Amino acid sequence: xxxKKIALIGAGNIGGTLAHLAAQKELGDVVLFDIVxxxxxxxxxxLQQCGPVxxxxxxxxGTNDYKDIAGADVIIVTAGVPRKPGMSRDDLLGINLKVxxxxxxxxxxxxxxxxxxCITNPLDAMVWALREFSGxxxxxxxxxxxxxxxxRFSTFLAEEFGVSVRDVSSFVLGGHGxxxxxxxxxxxxxxxxxxxxxxxxxxxxxxxxxxxxRTAVGGGEIVGLLGTSAFYAPAASAIAMAESYLxxxxxxxxxxxxxxxxxxxxxxxxxxxxxxxxxxxxxxxEITLDDTAKAGLQxxxxxVKELLVACKGIDPSLA
Length: 319
Ligand code: APR
What we know:
With 319 residues, this protein is an alpha/beta fold. The protein is 43% helix and 19% strand. The protein has a six-stranded parallel β-sheet. It has a three-stranded antiparallel β-sheet with strand order 7-10-11. The model has no long low-confidence stretch (mean pLDDT 96). NAD(+) binds at residues 10-15, 34, 96, 119-121. Keywords: NAD, Oxidoreductase, Tricarboxylic acid cycle.
């Protein structure tokens, strides 16, 4: 069987980390694409030379030519500009929309059968635009946000309860912005829901509320410290999604997926739990939400819709 091919569009902080993880895990041969000449080639060569040390056997190449992504099984898109301190994800809209147009056309022309994972922000708008520009089926284009946001939530919950992160399972819905909805009711410590643990006196509602707030602005916390956006956990999260697709694992992963008919939506990309398998996004899992979570989700949905209106204003071909 031929090796799988993973194409990474954008060879910056996240792109380089993705390439390293994909090669280490031998998901397939890796092609790093970027518009800047020399950067993808240099990073690829550096990463290729990790192989003999780390013992992985995967070819890593760099390119500035979209033709080299031909036949890719998975494409992960990080092309664009990241946040700087003081910027919201939405501030990136105008610049990154143009980038999505170029990337979408490149994918359409060269790798229309790929499973595409978008990471570029503002995520819910960019994954929608990328799907529009690429013309790929909705179930083959998905955004990475919920896995990362849940990982942040889980990290803070593990700290709060003093337990291994392995025993924490958490849930974040909605758009990948400050309006995201971390759902404590569906988050558990080894199967025990957070509200039950509060009743048992293991934490308080106030402390959990603070964790929920910290999760929602978790990306901003890192931008403030680092001067640019996070890259290790975003890359790890997208790799989990790629593995679920390549291995037909059918994992339930919160992702920015196209929802049409569930959650009261008629065709919108927003963060919901989905099943990812060989068919791409195979199912949107609809869960029952209490009134608070429902209201939170609605705020988040409205924020995403506003971004789409702004996108259509910038590029009338999307209207
Ligand atoms: N085509 C391909 N690559 C591009 C294009 C384009 N049209 N425009 C910019 N790039 C490349 C840049 O040259 C750079 O190498 O995208 C890369 C982005 O890398 P970084 O600036 O290091 O950004 P990164 O931290 O990887 O984040 C990328 O993901 O999480 C989001 O908000 C983040 O939107 C940002 C994206």
